[in-house]
Write a structure and sequence with these properties.
One of its GO terms (molecular function) is DNA-binding transcription factor activity. This protein has about 90 residues and is mostly helical. The protein has a domain at about 10-70: 434 Repressor (Amino-terminal Domain) (Orthogonal Bundle). The chain has five helices and no strands. The relative contact order is 0.21.
Length: about 90
């Protein structure tokens, strides 16, 4: 993914926030996938912003991590940990 000054899409925001939340909770992609009854490949694609995730799967992933869905779609959430913006 190229760096541009364009705002992130909702899919990219969700993916980045999902990855940050997962790492903060020290959960592997494999464990998250098992908890959400999804494949690890799917979780990886969602986190990288290449998979267009459904609202149902967004709910499964947020529940599996114990993080409110609203936090995972909030562009400002986890912003302090954004190491790729500068």
């Amino acid at each position: 993914m190229e760096k541009t000054n364009q705002p992130l899409s909702a899919r990219e925001i969700f993916g980045r926030n999902l990855r940050r939340a997962r790492r903060l909770k020290d959960v592997s992609q494999e464990e998250l996938a098992l908890r959400a009854d999804l494949s690890r490949t799917y979780v990886s694609e969602v986190e990288r912003g290449v998979r267009n995730v459904s609202i149902d799967n967004m709910g499964l992933l947020s529940q599996a991590l114990g993080v409110p869905l609203r936090d995972l779609v909030d562009p400002a959430m986890f912003k302090i940990l954004d190491d790729s913006s500068e």
